[in-house]
């Protein structure tokens, strides 16, 4: 019986460890985005708050996707414990910068699991992770787009400043 169960394990044992570590990272991402949503809520930035609440939900979905994949393929998924979530932010821009860093870290992590899959010929997991590769590409793009908005605003501030400066000579009439 034990042998029969063992035959059902499609995931290489080293890859399974990495997938469990990834569960931890996705859960951590979810918690980090929740903290960001809270900061936005408290600062009256309700659209951004919704963005991060949704992002937090998505990360939990990612975590569950991996969790189910492990269990459905004869492995054992471990429920993650979360700590080290900061709530200290100075600005919305800083939040999006952190969010981009978070996504880049997750992308690298997914890629390194794929590398391991190839080394140990775990093609099942490699195939499963293709969805995550695409997802990470999109999520990094989303965060970069948000940061571009800040750059755009900075540009506008500069233009506004120049306009004010140009008008200064005419205010003493
Ligand atoms: Fe889990 O998708 Fe990004 O981090």
Secondary-structure map:
Layout: H1 2-7, H2 13-42, H3 46-72, H4 92-120, H5 123-167
Helix pairs in contact: 2-3, 2-4, 4-5
Bound molecules: hydroxy diiron-OXO moiety.
Hydroxy diiron-OXO moiety is lined by residues 26, 29, 59, 62, 103, 106, 135-136, 139.
Overview of this protein structure:
With 173 residues, the protein is mainly α. Helices cover 79% and strands 0% of the residues. The chain is built from 5 helices and no strands. Helix 2 packs antiparallel against helix 3, helix 2 runs antiparallel to helix 4 and helix 4 runs antiparallel to helix 5. The longest helix has 45 residues. Bound molecules: hydroxy diiron-OXO moiety. Hydroxy diiron-OXO moiety binds next to helix 2, helix 3, helix 4 and helix 5.
Quick structural gist:
The chain is mainly α. Helix content is 79%, strand content 0%.
Task: Give the overall form.
Answer: elongated
In which range does the helix fraction lie? over 70%
Using the coordinates shown, work out and report the CATH topology of the domain at 2-79 and 110-132: Ferritin
As a percent range, the share of strand residues is: under 5%
> Roughly how many Å is the radius of gyration?
22 Å
Mean pLDDT: 91
CATH class category of the domain at 2-79 and 110-132: Mainly Alpha
Task: Record keyword descriptors for this entry.
mainly alpha; binds hydroxy diiron-OXO moiety; Ferritin; 173 residues; single chain
């Amino acid at each position: 019986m034990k042998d029969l169960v063992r035959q059902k394990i499609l995931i290489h044992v080293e890859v399974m460890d990495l997938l469990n570590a990834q569960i931890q990272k996705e859960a951590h991402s979810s918690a980090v985005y929740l903290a960001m949503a809270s900061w936005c809520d408290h600062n009256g930035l309700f659209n951004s708050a919704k963005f991060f609440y949704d992002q937090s939900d998505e990360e939990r979905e990612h975590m569950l996707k991996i969790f189910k994949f492990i269990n459905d393929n004869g492995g054992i998924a471990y429920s993650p414990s979360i700590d080290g979530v900061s709530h200290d932010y100075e600005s919305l821009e800083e939040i999006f910068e952190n969010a981009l860093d978070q996504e880049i870290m997750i992308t690298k992590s997914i890629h390194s699991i794929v590398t391991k899959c190839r080394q140990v010929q775990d093609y099942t997991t490699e195939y499963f992770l293709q969805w995550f590769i695409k997802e990470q590409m999109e999520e990094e793009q989303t965060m970069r787009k948000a940061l571009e908005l800040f750059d755009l605003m900075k540009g506008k501030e500069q233009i506004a400043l120049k306009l004010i400066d140009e008008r200064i000579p005419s205010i003493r009439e």
